[in-house]
Specification:
It is a single chain. Helix content is 61%, strand content 2%. It is mainly α. The radius of gyration is 25 Å and the shape is globular.
Length: 557
């Protein structure tokens, strides 16, 4: 039985952030547990924590200290803002603060190490604190609003009305998350044939590289490719499947490297940093150049979670640094998306960032309030629906999203999409005109899209599937964190991030994310499943040290 040593993981054992700590670190007291049988069969003896068989999780939820900290901190911030800013002396602060308290519970739990930093509930809590609490306040204090036809006469009333719906929805969300987890917490069923995973994964990477090479040839070489990606993106129409195949190979290759050389990477953490930098550059080249930040941002987040689950624990300090880099990238890339190659003028010193930001309208408030939140958008939708503007979709936008990637020759008559329904609500009845290019290309978030289909009630009900998705993705993530099997470790990151993105995205965005980030790696994993052999003589009882091998979980070797 080969032994493995690596930092223990679990609900309360994340890396300490004390002074002098390496940003990527492995820590925790040495301890021994019985080695899982899968470690002997597959050669994988990764990061695991014994969970016990047959254990049922009781009702879970924030404790009194977490409630006190979340309520005290959020209410204190709101009180200070009300005192300092006359614009905050409005009733909308009350429901917004209530939303802040309910979602800040998960942020506080993560800070207190009661939630893993990449737990889907913790990630959604971090995004939700900005989404439900900070964004509405920043809209008012910065007086920053999106461009709308006939905006609300009093934005604070519109934000307050939406905050009331969010407050009711978050109460439902918290109740559903607190329900006990039923079923046995058993080991993951399918086992991964690692050798087959290397072979099939390598073939998938080769296919992606060939698809990317085909793109370059189609556009007339590297210079033509760069020209299309930066200035002629209309030429990409109808190439969705080819683009997805070409953009999938960097992350699959990264996963192969992590699994194949996990022991070396655990000892030499600086190599992981260089791997992440290389992944960012390659991913930006194959997908980021065409004006989509998500083609770079989300693969990098998935890569961090894969490192966290397979190689070593990533500390909160590292996550904070990555978060700052994320915001800077979103801002700079927003300039590139609007200005194109003119951004190079900043590097040359011919123009300043302030000049390009002013010309394109891409500033930091736009990143924080329009790219990372939907407060003003959802407030406008609710006000329009309250006044009966626009027809309800009754689920048609979800059907349109589900058929988004179906080829036109297979489905010539497309269902109505959110482009039609959203345009009719935002710009007025009869305003959608595809021939003349008049439509609203907005992202509404899960509650916003639900309002397009079912009105205000839909916004509240949308928190039910959100909570169920969080519960399901958390269960898979806990398997990946606590058990040594590779299958959940490879699949949990994409499904967890997709669940978090549901809050601020529409269904068509989630479909594209899953097809581009989850399906390629999932297919590789599925084809690499090992078929267990059955002995004709029936199960044999192991004896001796093989049945009770001890694994010291601290540093891989």
């Amino acid at each position: 039985m080969r032994s493995a040593r690596i930092g223990p993981t679990g609900q309360n054992d994340d890396t300490s952030d004390g002074d002098g700590e390496d940003i990527f670190t492995v820590d925790g007291p040495a301890r021994t547990v019985d080695a899982p049988p899968s470690a002997d069969r597959t050669g994988w003896a990764g990061r695991s924590r014994p969970t016990g068989r047959g254990r049922r999780s009781g009702r879970t939820g924030p404790d009194t200290v977490t409630w006190a900290l979340a309520g005290g901190l959020v209410c204190a911030v709101s009180l200070v803002l009300v005192i300092l800013d006359d614009r905050m002396q409005h009733w909308f602060v009350v429901p917004v603060t209530g939303c802040g308290v309910l979602i800040a519970l998960d942020v506080v739990a993560c800070a207190r190490r009661r939630l893993d930093i990449f737990d889907p509930q913790a990630l959604l809590g971090l995004l939700g604190l900005h989404f439900f609490y900070l964004a509405p306040i920043l809209h008012v204090t910065l007086d920053h609003w999106g461009l709308f036809v006939n905006p609300p006469t009093e934005w604070r009333d519109a934000l307050g009305a939406m905050a009331i719906l969010n407050l009711v929805g978050l109460l439902i969300y918290r109740w559903l998350l607190s329900l006990p987890v039923r079923g046995r917490h058993t080991a993951w069923g399918p086992q991964l044939n690692v050798s087959r995973f290397y072979l099939i994964g390598s073939l998938a990477v080769a296919a992606g590289v060939l698809a990317f090479g085909f793109e370059i040839v189609v556009f007339g070489g590297l210079s033509g490719f760069l020209a299309v990606m930066t200035q002629g993106r209309d030429a990409l129409s109808g190439m969705g499947w080819l683009l997805m195949l070409a953009e999938s190979f960097p992350l699959i290759g990264f996963a192969l490297v992590l699994v194949r050389w996990r022991e070396v990477l655990a000892r030499r953490r600086s190599l992981v940093v260089w791997l992440l930098i290389g992944l960012a550059l390659v991913q930006f080249m194959v997908g980021g150049l065409r004006g989509s930040r998500s083609n770079t941002v989300w693969p990098m987040l998935l890569a961090l979670i894969l490192v966290h689950l397979i190689v070593f624990t990533i500390s909160r300090k590292a996550l904070l640094v990555c978060g700052l880099i994320f915001v800077v990238f979103m801002y700079v890339y927003g300039l590139y998306k609007s200005a194109g190659v003119e951004v190079i003028d900043v590097v040359r010193g011919d123009r300043s960032i302030e000049e390009i930001s002013s010309e394109t309208g891409r500033d930091l408030p736009k990143v924080l309030l329009n790219d990372l939140a939907r407060a003003d958008m959802q407030a406008v939708l609710l006000e329009r629906k309250r006044h009966g503007e626009g027809d309800l979709g009754y689920g048609v936008t979800y059907l349109g999203a589900a058929t988004l990637m179906v080829p036109g020759w297979l489905l010539p008559e497309r269902p109505t999409t959110k482009l039609v329904i959203g345009t009719e609500v935002l710009l007025g009845p009869g305003s959608y005109d595809r021939d003349n290019g008049q439509w609203a290309t907005r992202i509404y978030g899960i509650a916003g899209e639900a309002m397009l289909n079912f009105g205000a009630a839909g916004a509240v009900v949308s928190f039910v599937p959100l909570a169920l998705l969080v519960r399901w993705s958390r269960r898979l993530y806990r398997r990946a964190r606590d058990q040594p099997d590779l299958v959940p470790k490879l699949l949990a990151p994409s499904l967890g991030v997709a669940t978090v993105l549901v809050l601020s995205s529409d269904l068509d965005n989630i479909v594209v994310f899953l097809l581009g980030r989850f399906v390629p790696l999932a297919v590789v994993v599925l084809l690499a499943f090992a078929v267990p052999r059955r002995d004709s003589g029936g199960p044999k009882r192991s004896s001796g040290r093989a049945a009770h091998a001890r694994v010291d979980l601290r540093v891989l070797h």
